[in-house]
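Input record (one chain):
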Amino acid sequence: MIRPSFRLALAAVLGAVFFSGCAEAPVTVGDNNVEKPLQDVTGVTTDDIQKALQKQALNLMDVYSLAVKHTETLATNYENVLQAHSQQAQAVGSALPQIALNGTKTWASSGPNGFIGNGSPNVLVLPPSDTAYFSAAETISGLNDPAALEGADAAIDYQNYTFRYQSQLLLESVAHAFYTVLELQESQAALEKSRDLNQQILDVEQQWQTIGRSQLSDVANTQAQLKQVLADLENDKYQLSEAAVTLATLADIKPDQPLVCEESYSQPSFTLEDAESKVEERPDVKSAAASVQVADAQLLAAHGLHLPTLVAEADYYVDYDKPVDTNVWTVELEASLPLFTGGQDFAQEDAAASKKRQAELALSLARRTALDDIRDAYKSLNESMAETDAYQQAVAAYEEDYKDTLHDLRLNLTTNLALLQVMTSLETAEVSYIQAKYQTLYDWLWLQVATGELPKMANN
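The corresponding structure, as predicted from the sequence alone:
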C-alpha cells in the first residue's frame, strides 16, 4: 500500500493553520483616524476630527469628536468586544473535531532489558522506527458545547452594548465639562463687570465722604459688596481652572482652548410616556439582558453535568515502519456516565441558578435605574427651561431698574446705596440666568442621551 508523504501532510496542516482567519483590528488612541466600530457607536467620522482640528473655537460636538479618539475608555471597551469574539471562536473550535498530525521516533535494544544472552551489556540497538499519523478526536460532554456557543453569543452582545453605553457616558462627561467651562467664563465676565461698577461707586462715595455728601456706612457697605464680588471671582477662577483641565484631559486639548456654544434647546417633542417607552432600547438595559443570557448558558452547562460524555477517536497512519499488513487506521468510541461525584454536580447547578437569579435582579435594577434617568432628565429639562425664562425676565427687569436708578442718582433723587442694591440684584440675576441657561443645555443633551437620540450612531 502506498501512503502519502509525511512532508506533504505536514505542509498541508501548516498551510491550513497559517491561512486561518485573523482578528479584527483594534481601536487606537491618539491618532485622528476613526475606525468603523468607533464610528458606528459614536457617529464621529475622521472628517469630523479633521474639521475640528482646523477650528479656532470648538463647539460641543467638536470636543466630543476629539474625545472619542483621545481617551482610552472606548478603546478599552472595544478590546472587550474583540475578546468576546475570540471566546466565541474558541467555543466553536471546541465543538469541532480536534485533528492533529503526530510523529514518533523510537529506538530499542536488540535484547530484553538491554542485555544480550550472556548477560553482558549490549551497546548495539535495532534501527530506529518512524511513525507518522493523523489523529482526530471528538468529545461530547453533556451540554458543554451548546452552552458555550450560547454563552459566547450573549457575551458578544453584552460587550457591544457596553461599548455603545460608554460612548453615551463619554458624551455626557464632555458636555458637563464643556458647559461648566462656558458657564464659569460668562459668570466670571459678569462678576468682573460688577467689580468694576462697585469700584466706581466706591471711588465716588469716598470722594463724597470727604465733602460730607456720603456717609461712612455707605462706604463700608460698598467696600463689603466689592469684597464679596472679589471673593466670588476667585472662586469662579478656581472652578474654571479645574473644569478646563477636566475638559482638556478628556479631549486632549489645551486648557485655554477657545470654546463656543452653538447648541440650542427646545421643548421636548415627545411626552414623558413616549420617553419611558424607549427604556428597553437603552444599551445599559440591553447589556443587563445579555448578562442574563450568559448566566442562562452557564446554568445549561451545569444541567449537562448529569449527562454522559462521549469520546470518539480515530488514527490514520501515513508513515509506519511495520509490516504491510499492519492496520492503516483505528477508531475508538468511549462513553462515560457519571454516577456519583460527591454532590459536586448539584452544587454547581445550584451556584449557576443563583447567578442567573442575580443577573435577573440586576436587569430589573437596570430597568428601574434607566426609567429614573429618563424621568429625571425630562423633569429637569422642563424645570430648567422655566427657570431660564424666569431669570431672563428678571435680568431684563433689573437692567431697566438699574437704568432708572442711575438716572435718578444723577438728578440727586436717590442714593448710591440704592444703586448698589439694584446692582447687587442685577448681578445675582445675571449669574443665576447663566447657570440656568447652561443647565438647560446640559439637560437637553441628557434627555437625548437617556432616550438614545445621541450620540448620532450609524443605526440611529
